[in-house]
Amino acid sequence: MNRLADATSPYLLQHADNPVDWWPWCEEAFAEAKRRDVPVLISVGYAACHWCHVMAHESFENEGVAQLMNDDFVSIKVDREERPDVDAVYMTATQAMTGQGGWPMTVFATPDGTPFFAGTYFPRPNFIRLLGSVATAWRDQREAVLRQGAAVVEAIGGAQAVGGLTAPLTADLLDAAAAQLAQEYDETNGGFGGAPKFPPHMNLLFLLRHHQRTGSARSLEIVRHTCEAMARGGLYDQLAGGFARYSVDGHWTVPHFEKMLYDNALLLRVYTQLWRLTGDRLARRVARDTARFLADELHRPGEGFASALDADTQGVEGLTYVWTPAQLVEALGEEDGRWAADLFGVTESGTFEHGTSVLRLARDVDDADPEIRARWQGVVGRLLAARDTRPQPARDDKVVAAWNGLAITAIAEFQQVAALYASPDDEDANLMEGVVIVSDGAMRDAAEHLADAHVVDGRLRRVSRDKVVGEPAGVLEDYGSVAEAFCALHQLTGEGRWLALAGQLLEVALARFAAPDGGFYDTADDAERLVTRPADPTDNATPAGRSAIVAALVAYAALSGETRHREAAEATLSTVAPIVGRHARFTGYAATVGEALLSGPYEIAVVTDDPVGDPLVAAAHRHAPPGAVVVAGRTDQPGVPLLAERPALDGRSTAYVCRGFVCDRPVASVDDLVAQLR
After folding, report:
1. Which is nearest to 540 in space by CA: 10, 95, 48?
2. Longest dimension (CA), the chain
3. Best CA proximity match to 491, nearest among 585, 556, 447, 425
4. Which of 232, 242, 344, 517 satisfies CB 3.0 to 4.6 Å to 359 for a cystine?
5. pLDDT per position as a tens digit, 132-146
6. Strand order of the sheet with strand 662-663?
7. If you average pLDDT over residues 629-654, what whole number do you get?
8. Which residues lie closer than 8 Å to 49 by C-beta, 6 or more apart?
9. pLDDT tens, 173-183?
């Protein structure tokens, strides 16, 4: 009997009609395996995963394969986005056993959850042979299987352990991390490494802050080049905005077409900060259109941001997005069709499958003449209208707390920078204003949903769908990313309740997730016990729980004046510092927060009756050092500690700049404020 019909996870619901007797992750499934004396087959994936769909079609929908699974195993289906704790434990086991990991992940375990064999995608013939081999080994070589499982648990326990070397995260270590990234940088194509190539958003955020602190032209150039290469390549949707998960090649041409909320949130922050620091037109456009993508394509009214758009459309990867020259002519007419083919690199031979091409921006248009830009935008609008008539990829409507936190923080930063550069003379001023309005509404809607639905009895829940919160408890990255988002909202809105909510979440994190060495576990001390308690210090597709919680602690300490939160952040970063200089590509967010701590971070309060349009506020945002917090409003505004007991000088707007809880003299001119921030 398949037991997935009542699941809230879209991924599990995709398997609800399989002939496999699937169980959701639950104690009853392991009890059933123990009763039957059979091993457990744990299959982990997510709704937008292309190869998860392939394995489902090949194996899980096949009656013969399902019969083998039902006869010899208890099969458990897990959504890795809903249960990142389960995914983390078994991914570590998979990597320990095979040297690599990925999804779909296939793990065989004893009835107590101890993994003894693992892999990722298996074609149907291989999977059938594997099922037979594991079933035979369980029956005839039980002792060897149990020894293998014990060895794996010992290995993953060591890999996920807290404790070990600690050291302050110093300027020298951060400089070493930047130097390592520069050494590993792809000088030709941008980014790091070869195929598949992932957008290195957290490393780029770090390098931007490193450039601010040191003036490093090299760090800024790496960011500029990579951002331009990604935005002009097939990784970026040239019509609707938004980035795909990764490029299957090393030069950003052909994407793996799924679009994840977390990638787009983090990349929005990168392009927004590059725009803030340089005024770059391409960065401005991509930030605007990525914010629009989040608001238009992923926001669910009354809830938050959905997790992803699928890689496939009707089982075909890229069906919605790719073009031939003939299709361009059909949509645009002969002249504009040929012009668009040249502009977007669409050829007769194609860059993708079956003679189709992924749209790339083969010409520089951001700095072109106004008539060229107008023609380009007209073509984009017409092509998008034509594309909208095609079948569209499915959307994973699950709302994940941590990823919504990332999106809220990104949009809050976008709102601040958009206000800096707002000008009625811009050719696209109306478009920018519209994006600011819709993204602001989506951001606030998501924040209200997190506060109202995901916080249950003072604790954070991981997921919700259709306004119904799920059972899985929030993990450390949820607490960190949501608390950081609430701190960002506090700065944007001047509302004290967001800071209070952030503080409540951080108190839970300090009480329930903290480890004795100053680090943190990824799960609470009263969470479900797995074969090991995960505590991964490295940043991967999203910030590690440890990095996320440190970012929130640093921001909250600066906004509230609570020194113990800063001390906790410093202690936690010291557990990551030993690997920052050696493995910079996997500690990008930790290094980003490290730059903030090294900078101060600055605490900037502007006492004003006009927190949106005051020139002092604009100067504070434009020149804010790495990780600075900025609040603006009337003196003694309720719930805003940085404005407490700070009067306006002679009735004029006044800026107060502090660093590490030590303050400069108050100033009332933009020049004086900028001088203090240099």
Report:
1. 95
2. 87
3. 556
4. 344
5. 999 999 998 988 888
6. 629-633, 602-607, 654-659, 662-663
7. 93
8. 103, 104, 258, 311
9. 999 999 999 99
